[in-house]
Amino acid sequence: MKRRKTILHDREVEYVVKKSSRARRLRVAVYCDASVIVTVPVDFGEHKVERYLKEKASWVLDKLDYFLRLSKTVRIGGGLREYKKNRAQALEFVTAKVAKINELYKFSFGKISIKNHKTRWGSCSKKRNLNFNYKIIFLPDELAEYVIVHELCHLQEFNHSQKFWNLVSRNFSDYKLLIEKLSAVR
């Protein structure tokens, strides 16, 4: 296998040509480690490979970009067993953080609960209860604190209006960046 480079839409792309006696036609594969493998029949003219890659440039670059984004995504697994194992620790963690952060806001609230949410990091109920995903303990501190600030601010503004974001920005002026970072964690 020989490593080569080509330019696809102004981007340098490295690829490997692999000759195979089983291959009947040219095949391009892009893998999660961002490697590009071009498999060709043994008697295939190698000069045709680069031309084919240029024809498929949009597809190849889309796949490379997809795997690049995916590699930046952090996955926090878990299920019922993990939830039960970490719920008490999460409650202790969140309760301490809420107390500290709420020194700035001084909002009154009901109870704090730890949930096993599939898609949410937190929520605030009409009864002024704060609910948090147990996986919050696995987040970097800055993101965990952002989630807590976000839910605390819903105690005063039960929406995502400009007033709400002004409250959030009292603690996190860079909240947009934090939202982006948080969306990369699943």
TrEMBL record:
UniProt xrefs under InterPro entries: UTP_pyrophosphatase-like, YgjP-like_metallopeptidase
Domain YgjP-like metallopeptidase intervals: 87-182
Query: Which stretches are transmembrane?
Result: none
Record protein name field: YgjP-like metallopeptidase domain-containing protein
